[in-house]
């Protein structure tokens, strides 16, 4: 049975991935972290990766390894035509997807389906790129400034853990009806604060992010559903990123 063009291309990537994993200088931890990050959040700026890897690596280290991954063709970049954005956006290449899949002992097709990666995933993300870039800036600001903003009584808390998700969908029951929540993003932060008795207190906070035009009448209705319908846990809040028509 003859192979299709797509199957030939996939098998070529698999052979190249096997060859790369057998090289004398394998990828190090920071390389795998960057590949994981770009798998989960495709089309990221270099500064977004710096925020994501700040706990483990410096800005210079992230930039250096990102350049190395691009030179190895495990990561690719594009310059979007979005107004006001001249920076490159990075994503895992098809070869990088196969290398990462081999590292995780999973099939590349399974990995692409789980995270909407690969060519099909990028085609799905591209129409929402203007919104995702704004949301990414909101997330970066929260991560870099949350701990300092919550300082009080000379106590300086620190950000211990955090995660976020694009395009969150959640179904729940409210007043005997099944309802569906959609948010453009959701962020979870763990803030650690030193107590008077030298112990530490870890508190988790959650935020739903909605992106809307300033004159969008759906804004209050969506905000009301998110904050009052019982879908959000304690310490959950609502952040609204807006845009205006020129």
Morphology: globular
* Residue runs with pLDDT of under 50 for 5 or more positions: 240-246
Q: What is CATH's topology name of the largest domain?
A: Arc Repressor Mutant, subunit A
Largest sheet: 4 strands, mixed
Mean pLDDT: 78
What is the SS-derived class? alpha+beta
Q: Please state the CA-atom Rg, rounded to the nearest Å.
A: 21 Å
CATH class descriptor name of the largest domain: Mainly Alpha
| Terminal residue distance | 57 Å
Number of domains: 2
Order of helices and strands: HHHHEEHHHHEEEHE
Number of helices: 9
Can you identify the CATH superfamily of the largest domain?
Winged helix-like DNA-binding domain superfamily/Winged helix DNA-binding domain
Structural features, described:
This protein is 44% helix and 26% strand. The model is unreliable at 240-246 (pLDDT under 50). The radius of gyration is 21 Å and the shape is globular. With 246 residues, it is of the alpha+beta class. It folds into 2 domains: 5-127, Winged helix-like DNA-binding domain superfamily/Winged helix DNA-binding domain (Arc Repressor Mutant, subunit A), CATH 1.10.10.10; 150-243, no CATH class.
Topology:
Elements: H1 5-21, H2 29-40, H3 46-52, H4 59-71, E1 75-78, E2 89-92, H5 94-104, H6 108-115, H7 118-125, H8 129-149, E3 158-174, E4 177-194, E5 200-213, H9 218-228, E6 236-243
Parallel strand pairs: 5-6
Antiparallel strand pairs: 1-2, 3-4, 4-5
Helix pairs in contact: 1-5, 3-4
């Amino acid at each position: 049975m003859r192979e299709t063009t797509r199957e030939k291309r996939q098998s070529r990537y698999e052979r190249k991935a096997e060859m790369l994993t057998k090289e004398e200088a394998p990828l190090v931890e920071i390389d795998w972290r960057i590949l994981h990050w770009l798998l989960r959040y495709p089309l990221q700026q270099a500064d977004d990766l710096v925020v994501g890897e700040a706990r483990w690596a410096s800005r210079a280290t992230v930039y250096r390894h990102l350049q190395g991954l691009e030179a190895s063709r495990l990561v690719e970049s594009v310059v979007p035509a979005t107004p006001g954005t001249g920076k490159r956006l990075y994503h895992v290449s098809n070869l990088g997807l196969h290398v990462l899949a081999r590292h995780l002992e999973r099939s590349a097709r399974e990995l692409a389906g789980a995270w909407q990666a690969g060519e099909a995933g990028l085609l799905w993300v591209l129409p929402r790129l203007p919104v995702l870039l704004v949301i990414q800036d909101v997330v970066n600001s929260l991560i870099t400034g949350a701990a300092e903003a919550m300082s009080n009584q000379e106590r300086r808390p620190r950000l211990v853990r955090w995660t976020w998700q694009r395009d969150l969908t959640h179904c729940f029951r409210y007043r005997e009806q099944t309802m569906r929540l959609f948010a453009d993003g959701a962020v979870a932060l763990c803030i650690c604060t030193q107590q008077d008795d030298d112990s530490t207190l870890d508190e988790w906070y959650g935020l739903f992010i909605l992106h809307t035009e300033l004159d969008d009448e759906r804004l209050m209705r969506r905000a009301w559903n998110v904050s009052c319908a019982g879908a959000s846990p304690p310490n959950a809040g609502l952040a609204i990123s807006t845009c205006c028509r020129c």
